[in-house]
Design brief:
This protein is α+β, with helices and mostly antiparallel strands. Helix content is about 25%, strand content about 35%. The chain has two domains: about 45 residues; about 140 residues, Ctag/Cox11 (Ctag/Cox11 (Pfam 04442), Sandwich), CATH 2.60.370. The chain is built from two helices and ten strands, in the order αββββββββββα. It has a five-stranded mixed beta sheet with strand order 1-7-9-5-3. Strands 4-2-10-6-8 form a five-stranded mixed beta sheet, with no helix packed on it.
């Protein structure tokens, strides 16, 4: 009894087709995972000026200061004003510091915003640590309301051991607020009419 060459060709085609379907499915899955994986990578390494998160302050404070400048921006689609309460502060490296930003909703309806952030120069990202920050959660402001938003941070003393950061004397912490993507316009309009 001999094998039918047509059956072998069809089996081969089926295997190739399944492999191609699996490849496409894998690529689609990776495309959805790319943004969260990139965010995790940046947070772990400080890449692209992404500050680190910490549960507590540094173990030691150096007798050397660094100037931290604060920058605040708002997306043009978000009807908020957003400014640092102080434009800069000098802190000792390793010292836990507290800064405030002020946001005001200039619209006649509640708006929820989310902040993205980075530090520059980007080499300092792996040494700039946030303990507490308004940027970790969504922020909702009522119409006309203002809110002081705190950020607790420190600059890791290990920066002085890094050839790329040891001579830095300034760092800029920058935020940009965007209207929260999952806040539908219709829901805002309904909330506006029910609140009056």
């Amino acid at each position: 009894m001999t094998d039918n060459p047509n059956n072998n060709k069809q089996t081969g085609r089926n295997v190739v087709a399944l492999l191609l379907v699996g490849l496409v499915a894998g690529m689609v899955g990776l495309s959805f995972a790319a943004v969260p994986l990139y965010r995790i990578f940046c947070q772990a390494t400080g890449y692209n000026g992404t500050p680190q998160r910490a549960d507590r302050g540094a173990d030691k404070v150096l007798d050397r200061t660094i100037t931290v400048r604060f920058d605040a921006n708002v997306d043009k689609h978000l009807a908020w004003s957003f400014v640092p309460v102080k434009k800069k502060m000098d802190v000792k490296i390793g010292e836990t510091a507290l800064a405030f930003f002020k946001a005001t909703n200039k619209s006649n309806h509640p708006i929820t915003g989310s902040a993205i952030f980075n530090v520059s120069p980007e080499q300092i990202g792996s040494y700039f640590n946030k303990i507490q920050c308004f940027c970790f959660t969504k922020q909702t402001l009522a119409p006309g309301a203002s809110k002081d938003m705190p950020v607790t941070f420190f600059v890791d003393p290990k920066m002085v051991d890094d050839v790329d950061t040891k001579n830095l004397t300034e760092v800029t912490l920058s935020y940009t607020f965007y209207q929260n993507d999952d806040e539908p316009v219709a829901a805002v309009s309904q909330g506006e009419s029910s609140g009056s």
